[in-house]
Request: fold
Amino acid sequence: MRALRRVIGWLVAIIALAAALFLIWAMMSGRPQDLPWTPLDLGEPIGLSTGRKLAALGSDFGQCRALLDRAGVRYTTLPVRREGAHCGYADGVRFTAGGARRIGFAPAALGIACPVAAALAMWEWNVVQPAAQRHFGKRVTRIDHFGSFNCRRIYGRDSGTWSEHATADAIDVAGFRLADGTRITVVGDWRDTAARSAFLREVRDGACTLFATTLSPDYNAAHRDHLHLDQANRGTLGWRACR
Reply:
């Protein structure tokens, strides 16, 4: 028992030392976005704590809207929607033209939960556009998607856990359109030519730093034609999945 207490004491000391070193590093590196207690700023680069801060916006619609406003993102607030006991949203928004975002969505009538909108904006600025420039030398002008809100359970089953789509906390991204008209699709290019496949995997990996769940064709056959991105708030521990 005494030996066990010594081991636990050493583990606690090591964890405390690691936390102190991380704090010193984050403060000296001038990266407030790495610290869990600093305010979220959508205009800052992605940090170690950005994803959890974005997910936490699910409990503060007003703060989420304020962050979009501060970042220059144009949007409209959607009416509260309720469908039965498990479906609907009270924090829905829809992007509008102009502002800090220069990218469109097809179909255009995309209603999403505000934390998803905030994460999509950061994904475009920090991940999608830089990756498109690296691989193709062109900007992405449009994201093609299969929708967001859908009152259903996971995989459309008759029972079990409700999908994040049931509360508009998810979006399924099908592909991207470049400035020259080139279309890149998940179903056609995930395992195709080097540049297209590399681009899709890079934007998938980048999404993992911003969304609570990111699922791709590498996860299972049900995701062979899209990237599932959701921003469910899974509590303070910020459980995340990236496949």
